[in-house]
Amino acid sequence: MKKSTKRRSSPQVKLVKFAERHLELTWNWMQLKPVQEGFLLKPPASIKAHQQWFKRRIRSGDKDSEHYAITFEKRHVGNCGLKKIDLAQRTAELFIYLDPDCAGRGLASSAVRELQKIARRRGLRKIYLQVRIDNRAGTDLYLNNGFKLEGILRREFLWRGRALDMYRMAWFTR
Prior knowledge:
seven-stranded mixed sheet; 7 strands; 36% strand
């Protein structure tokens, strides 16, 4: 795997705490096949189940995750955050997904950099993630933002009857 040499300036996004007002649009994205396939998302069974998740995980003050809505020009364009936050080990897992209409505009890159700033402020030493080996855009996104390949996880993720290979990548604070 070679680091992508493409580098362009990214538009500035703002991360805001995920709130109830973000649920409907998020639900709509999760119904789209490109979002499900690209981010390996299994949508909740219903909008009601999605609302219950929000009440259980977000509103109740879940301590091991931080969820954000990605906004650009005052428009909700995606979601991201840190989950599996382990303060003892000072690590967390990054997640991100965007409205497919916003792909390729540098918004994800800007959001990843904002999450890196949050990780530094929280005193984390490492952010890790998994990305499908065949997801070139995702792999390039992370490489271009300082993530390093830690390894290949063979047949790691079962998706619609297929076992997928994943890259395990990590970014370390300095």
